[in-house]
Amino acid sequence: MSRYLSLFNSPGGVASLPLTLMRVAIGLFFFASGFNKVFVPASQMMMLETITEAGIPFPALMAVFVASCETLFGLLLAVGLLSRFSALVLTIISLVALVTVGIHHIPAGINMLTWYSWLLYLPEPLYILILAMIVVQGSGPLSIDRIIAQRLTRSS
């Protein structure tokens, strides 16, 4: 049982409350975004167009798969269940979105500092930073993961 503890354990206390707030906010963002891409026809079409234009293979299948992953793992992240794994999956989705679509919004022929500024104007790098923090730190004090960690600690 103790070998699974590191998957669920995270810092507690008031100092970690911002971690919980970020986890819930970004989880709900991905849930809402994915939900709309799965169930709202206009969002489905935009997602399919984006994936097709990015040159991702099997765009119709991948559009549904990615949107479903955003929905599921966003919800899990929001409630704090399997937070590290969910954040990792959403990080990968954000990285692919950044590399295939987002980074092409940065103008060519600019200096490195300006390029960096443009990069941080894109939403994906900030999602990636927040999600990376959750992968490393865990879910925070108010989560299902924390309850599981406490029970695993008591049982071992």
TrEMBL record:
Its main location: membrane. It is a multi-pass membrane protein. It is found in: Cell membrane. It holds the Pfam family DoxX. The keyword DNA damage does not apply. One of its GO terms (cellular component) is plasma membrane. Keywords: Cell membrane, Membrane, Transmembrane, Transmembrane helix. The keyword Hydrolase does not apply. It comes from the Bacteria. The chain crosses the membrane at residues 12-35, 55-78, 85-106, 126-144. Belongs to the DoxX family. This is DoxX family protein. It comes from Pluralibacter gergoviae.
